[in-house]
Description:
CATH superfamily: Cytochrome Bc1 Complex, Chain C
Structural class: mainly alpha
Number of helices: 11
Shape: globular
Number of domains: 1
Distance between the termini: 54 Å
Helix content: 55-70%
Amino acid sequence: MTLSKKKRLWKRIRHSRVWKSIFRHGYEDTKRNRILQIRSNIFLHIHPAKIPSQAGKIRFTWCMGGITFFLFIMEVVTGILLMFYYRPVTEYAYLDMKYLEFDVPFGLILRNIHRWAAHLMVATIMLHMLRVFLTGSYKPPREFNWVIGVTLLALTFLLSFTGYLLPWDQLAYWAITVGTNMIRAMPFIGHEGPFAFVNKYNDIRFMLLGGTGIGPNALLRFYVLHIMVLPAAAIIFIGLHFWRIRKDGGISRPL
C-alpha cells in the first residue's frame, strides 16, 4: 500500500461516524483543543482536564493508586478464569485446587498470579493510604474521597479474608477459625464482646459462617462474598473514587 493510499484510508477512518462518536475532536496541539479532547472523549472524560505539574511526578504519588487499580483488574481477570475450575462444595474444593495446580495447563501459574496479586494489592493500597496521609491529601476539599478510600481499604481486607478459605486446606481452615473467633468479640454484634445484645446463634460470626462452625455453609457464603458481593461493592466505590478525584481537581499537589 502506497503512502498516499494510507493517508486516504486514515483520513476516511478519522472522518467516519464511528470515529467521531468516540473521538469528537482532532489532535491539533492547542490548549483549548487538549481540554476538549479530555472532556469529550468517552475514555478520558473521567480524568480532570488539567492537574498541577508537581502532582504527576512519581516521587510524589509513588503511583500506588494506579498500581492498586491494575492489580484489582488482574484479580478480576484471573478470578474469572479460576471460576471455571472451582466448585464451592467441601467435597470438591480442595480436589479442584489440586487439579488446577497439577493437571490444568498453566493452572499453577494462574493461581499464583491471583494469589500474589492479592498480597501485593493489600500492600500497595496501604502504601497509597500512607502517601495520602503524609502529603495531607485527605484535607478539604478531599475529605469525602478519603472516606471512600478507607472504605476501599476495608473492602480489600475483606476480599483477601474471604478468599483465604476457598482452597479448603488446613491453613485456610484454621486461619478463618482464628479470624472468625476474633470477630465474635466485637462490641454489640459479637456475642462475647462488650455491650452484646446477641447470642452465638445470631451474632456476626453465625451470620458469616452460616452456623456455629466452619463447614459447607461457610464455604458457600465466603465464595459468594468473594466473587460477587465484595467485587461489586469495590467496583462501585472505585468509580466514586475516580469521580471524586476528577471533581476535586485531580491529584493534590505537594504541600
